[in-house]
Specification:
Layout lengths: L4 H9 L47 E5 H7 L4 H5 L5 E3 L9 E3 L7 E5 L2 E2 L21 E6 L3 H4 L6 E6 L14 E11 L4 E11 L3 E12 L3 E7 L8 E4 L5 E14 L2 E15 L6 E20 L2 E19 L2 E22 L2 E17 L8 E15 L3 E16 L2 E2 L5 E3 L2 E5 L2 E12 L2 E12 L3 H5 L1 E4 L4 E4 L7 E14 L2 E25 L2 E25 L13 E15 L4 E2 L7 E10 L2 E10 L15 E14 L2 E10 L13 H4 L10 E9 L1
């Protein structure tokens, strides 16, 4: 098999570069809600971070919701979360971007929908987007650091849990019930994007119904540099990223029946998208995804069990890569996820959750340019999470044991020769963790986490053998790979006094058999060959965030006569990742970053202005492109208005205020198609959100 014209041309024009990596954090939840009066509580409850629903979480957890989500929302999950401490986006142009956590992405960061699996192909390749649009999201929960105990080896870096309430979990107050809703509409100048969403929920104390729909239509993204474009019908040169247009739409229906001791709900959601891949001027991806989910909770079933929660989801994902109007490779992924959790009654100060999880997926890539064979993956796991309350705080500990089987199917080419060989591997990864939270003073908390995790290799790491457009390389798997193992520690301190808050976390991880792509020195069909290889690796870093009340109640400058409030938010992060087998830096790691936002509010008005500064990233593997430093400014203005039952929030937001030319160190495109994929230029977004 020989690569198509687009592979041959790009192989000559760009130097290949590869990585298998994948840090994120949202605005700390404790910075969004006040502490309890008698016991310091610096963390809002997060389902992802604490399965017991406690107000204090030992693992670093955070939430993005409300006005912060509205003003930071982008077209992808990565863009939505990229300005938060510790966050980076894989940024395959403005249409694709998975969040990474602490230098880890891909199959080391787990993306969930309402705590259930998201069935897609986004972790397989940088040019594959997640079938989740931030327009339909109500809140995003983030768990930083190893979350493998609860969610499997694919959560070594952390978890991003997208909450949309498509299965209502709370009844409408009162027997009469009612109807609530939300509607969004906005326009962005940088890509001429028109977007909108509507959500309606109704019911009473016995049932609830949910329906939502969204649409997004955007053209090519404006940038501060003139770029060439070979796409038919487009200008040969323009100050826009060629082939970066995007159209997405979808929606869902769901409902829940409430009982005296629990609930049972279901939902069906659909997502459709068509977007340019940016790496190729004439290549687009048409994506479609359907997801059905079932969820139930049974309280007080008797005996030692306090409650039982069950979740089941089934996803059917498919996308087709088009070169012009000609269909090329087709990617399909169908799978199911079943999760049962039993919360036992307290034994003194000891409380906990035990559970079982089963996942199964069937993946296929069909076409001449498929670089992995069809495969099936089955995983069964048992897990436990326990918390022991003490006079000074609490201890947490847990364990997870898994059994994973990965099979590939033999594939013949047109000549009858074996294109891919059949293979099968079994793995038994195990993980364990210990954590502590210490209330050292009325305003201070210290946290610490120690964990050991194992991850089974994915199908593409075992059986890949073909050309990969996103990395411009011929990728080769290794069917003899063993478990990827890591030991991690993080130490944190949090302080809160009135409106003033500060948090800092230091972390370090050591990997044995870290599975990454490494050049072999050989060439296959004019493409450099890269092989999945196990190496030793080390990650270390620091994350910090804080808020200082400058003006207003308990402010540094005292209260204001007009009722104005002025807060200063500060943030920063640093991560260093090294292949200790070679001494070389690992690729696609975010540089050190600092940022600040000044937030003002008075009555219905609000305003903010801030910046994020990324330092130069020169710690790159030999032969890779370094990136320069840059500062991106942003500003926003909001106004709240009540019209009848509806509460309107008008807003205007300016991104990249100074129209700065910048390139992302975490984007593979910076290596393969430079200078064709800079970060977006100046864009003004105006919109309104109505809630009723």
């Amino acid at each position: 098999m020989f690569p198509s014209r687009r592979f041959r041309v790009r192989a000559i024009r760009r130097a290949a570069f590869l990585c298998a990596l994948g840090a994120m954090s949202a605005t700390p939840a404790w910075a969004q809600s006040p502490a309890a009066a008698d016991v310091p509580s610096l963390s809002e409850v997060t389902v992802t971070g604490n399965p017991l629903g406690e107000a204090q979480t030992v693992a670093p957890a955070s939430v993005l919701s409300g006005e912060n989500l509205l003003l930071e929302r982008g077209s992808t999950l990565g863009e939505t979360l990229a300005e938060q401490p510790g966050v980076a986006s894989s940024y395959f142009g403005p249409n694709v971007g998975r969040p990474s956590i602490r230098g880890l992405d891909g199959d080391r960061v787990r993306i969930l929908q309402n705590s259930g699996a998201s069935i897609d192909a986004s972790s397989l390749s940088y040019d594959h987007n997640t079938p989740i649009d931030p327009l339909a999201v109500e809140r995003i929960e983030v768990l930083r650091g190893p979350a493998a105990l609860l969610y499997g080896g694919s959560a070594q870096g952390g978890v991003v849990n997208v909450i949309d309430n498509r299965i209502p979990r709370q009844p409408v107050a009162g027997p009469e019930g009612g109807v609530t809703g939300r509607a969004d509409a906005s326009y962005a100048s940088g890509s001429r994007e028109k977007s909108g969403a509507v959500l309606l929920e109704g019911g009473n104390d016995r049932y609830a119904l949910h329906v939502d729909a969204f649409s997004r239509d955007a053209g090519d993204t404006a940038v501060p540099i003139t770029l060439e474009c070979a796409r038919p019908g487009s200008p040969a040169e323009a100050r826009r990223i060629c082939n970066s247009a995007n159209r997405a739409w979808g929606g869902a229906v769901g409902g829940t029946v409430f009982f005296d001791r629990g609930y049972l709900g279901a939902s069906v959601a659909g997502y459709r998208s068509s977007y340019g891949t940016v790496a190729e001027d004439e290549v687009t991806i048409g994506m479609r995804s359907t997801r059905a989910a079932l969820e139930g909770l049974w309280r007080n079933p008797g005996g030692l069990i306090e409650s039982v929660k069950g979740q089941f989801s089934h996803g059917d994902y498919r996308h087709t890569e088009y070169e012009g109007d000609e269909a090329g490779t087709v990617f399909k992924n169908r799978g199911s996820d079943l999760r049962l959790e039993a919360r036992h009654r307290a034994f003194g100060n000891l409380r906990g959750v035990w559970g079982v999880q089963w996942e199964g997926t069937r993946f296929a890539a069909l076409g001449d340019e498929a670089f992995i064979p069809p495969s099936t993956t089955r995983a069964l796991a048992l897990f436990a999470h326990e918390e022991l309350a003490t006079g000074w705080g609490k201890l947490t500990f847990g364990a997870r044991a898994e059994q994973v089987r990965v099979r590939s199917t033999a594939v013949l080419d047109d000549a009858g020769d074996e294109r891919f060989a059949a293979g099968s591997r079994r793995f038994t990864p195990g993980s364990a963790a210990l954590g502590a939270l210490v209330n050292v003073a009325p305003d201070w908390q210290l946290t610490g986490n120690l964990s050991y995790t194992q991850r089974a290799p994915k199908d593409y790491e075992l059986f890949a053998d073909g050309p990969h457009v996103a990395t411009a390389a011929w990728e080769v798997g290794d069917p003899t790979l063993g478990l990827e193992k890591s030991a991690s520690i993080d130490l944190g301190a949090q302080w809160k006094r009135g409106p003033h808050r500060f948090a800092v976390t230091a972390f370090a991880s050591r990997y044995g058999n870290y599975i990454g792509l490494a050049p072999t020195g050989r060439t296959v069909d004019d493409l450099p060959e890269y092989a999945y290889t196990g190496v030793k690796a080390r990650f270390a870093g620091l994350e910090a965030s804080g808020t200082v009340r400058l003006l207003g109640a308990q402010g540094v400058a005292g209260d204001s006569a007009g009722g104005s409030v002025l807060d200063l938010d500060l943030r920063g992060d640093l991560v260093r990742a090294t292949n200790t087998s070679t001494g070389q830096p690992l690729p696609l790691i975010a540089p050190a970053r600092v940022g600040a936002t000044l937030r003002w509010s008075q009555g219905p008005w609000g305003a903010r202005i801030g910046f994020d500064h990324a330092m130069a990233q020169r710690r790159v593997p030999e032969g890779s492109r370094a990136t320069g430093a840059y500062t991106l400014w942003n500003a926003a203005l909001t106004y709240r208005q009540k019209v009848g039952r509806a509460q309107l929030q008008w807003y205007a937001r300016v991104d990249n205020l100074s129209n700065r030319l910048a390139y992302s160190a975490t984007s593979i495109l910076t290596q393969t198609v430079f200078p064709n994929a800079p970060l977006p230029g100046r864009s003004v977004r105006v919109g309104v959100q109505a809630t009723f």
